[in-house]
Amino acid sequence: MAVKGVLNSFIFATPPSSFMEAPSDRLFLVGQPLRHSSPKISGKEAVQKRCVIVSRRLSGLEEAMRIQRLRELQSSVKIRKRPPLRRGKVSARLPVPEHISRPPYVGSNMLPELSNEYQVHDDDGIAHMKAACELAARVLNFAGTLVRPSVTTNEIDKAVHKMIIDAGAYPSPLGYGGFPKSVCTSVNECMCHGIPDSRQLQNGDIINIDVTVYLNGYHGDTSKTFLCGNVNEPTKRLVKVTEECLQRAISSCKDGASFKKIGKKISEVAERYGYGVVERFVGHGIGTVFHAEPLILHHRNDKSGCMVEGQTFTIEPILTMGSIDCVTWDDGWTTVTADGGRAAQFEHTILITRTGAEVLTKY
Fold first, then answer.
1. Which of 20, 86, 130, 360 is deepest in the core (most CB within 10 A)?
2. Is 347 annotated as a binding residue?
3. Would you call 55 helix, strand, or coil by DSSP?
4. 21 marked ligand binding residue
5. Where along this sequence does the record place binding of substrate (predicted)?
6. Is 291 annotated as a binding-site member?
7. What pLDDT does 42 receive?
């Protein structure tokens, strides 16, 4: 789940004044200033850093690919202009059996503070993380099999909820800062934090399903964008490139590597195809708490800090076909692209090792 900033599973940045403002108690998920402190594991005082966007000249090949993509987009719009996403009816929150352990934030509508404790684990903690993440991945794979025209996102939520509680786990989003459902379902132009409702999926839609489970005191977080029916080629390419961005970012991770390499790798791939990288939502540390430092920026940045062996965090880039500006609906969660252009997202929870990174939420 992303945290907002330059946190869905939840992603942080100060939205321009033209954006719809989210309630102040929800800023953790839907918008935090990009300027933030980057705590060091040593415990020394963090130094204020400001993210810097670095521009560079596109090569001839990259420029040609960008122009080709723009032509494809123009062509697809002429063929069919899809109506904007509209909210459906949101049903009541689903019950969770009393014997299932709940995260500490359940029962309060207040958004939890971002933990400043890096999630670094011993062997026992790693084993628990692997179990939670393996379950999250199985649930996500199952949810993907439900994606087809006429199915509602509320039906997907019910199925995910049942699978999670049947496994003895708790659906982490349920009750997080008042979130009313057990999974996030973000359709078409929805960047993240879509609330499952009565809207039926349409032929040609894309949908990101973001699953997080709380099992034996540990959270596992993952998401994937699925195709619904016959999706046009430009949208398929957006989805494919977004997944490539995630894989390239993971390949740059290992003990001692700089966090800023993640944003660099993602930006390099996205720029090659002319896509925008959303800055407002970020990845995050995860373990015994849902959202913790460090915040993982997906765009080019000058963030300080390095990865350490045994650490777990999410990487969850969101790419757009047009503007990266966004608007949050008055439900305080659903965030869509300002221009109505489609967005895609992929997410994994990873474990830093001495020589690389292990993907704990393999699909």
1. 360
2. yes
3. coil
4. no
5. 193, 291
6. yes
7. 46
- Within 218-274, where are the H helices? 233-251, 260-273
pLDDT on residue 61: 63
Kindly give, in sequence order, each residue whose CB lies less than 8 Å from that of residue 292, ignoring residues fewer than 6 positions away: 114, 115, 116, 117, 118, 119, 284, 285, 286
Q: What CATH class has 123-359?
A: alpha beta
What are the contacts of 248-252 at 24+ separation with CB within 8 A?
A: 249/298, 249/315, 249/317, 250/315, 250/348, 250/350, 250/357, 250/359, 251/356, 251/357
Alpha carbon separation from 124 to 128, 349, 351 (Å, rounded): 6, 17, 14
Place of tokens 């896509």: 275
Residue pair 92/158 in contact (Cβ under 8 Å)? The answer is: no
Q: Are 318 and 294 in contact (CB under 8 A)?
A: no
Q: What is the pLDDT of residues 95-145, one digit of tens each?
A: 999 999 999 999 999 999 999 999 999 999 999 999 999 999 999 999 999
Q: Is 316 within any annotated ligand binding site? A: yes
CB 49 within 8 A of CB 303: yes
Tell whether the model's pLDDT for residue 67 goes beyond 80. Answer: no
* pLDDT of the residue at 14: 35
**How high does pLDDT run on average in the chain?**
87
Q: Is residue 193 marked as binding? A: yes
* Secondary structure class of 318 (helix, strand, coil): strand
| pLDDT the model gives residue 66 | 67
DSSP code per residue over 14-43: ---TTSPPPPGGGHHHH---S-EE---TT-
Tell me, rounded to whole angstroms, the distance of Cα 92 from its chain centroid: 24
Q: What pTM, to 2 d.p., does this model score?
A: 0.82
Domain boundaries, the chain: 123-359
Span 37-59, mean pLDDT? 44
Q: How far apart are CA 157 and CA 55, in angstroms?
A: 40
Length of the chain: 363
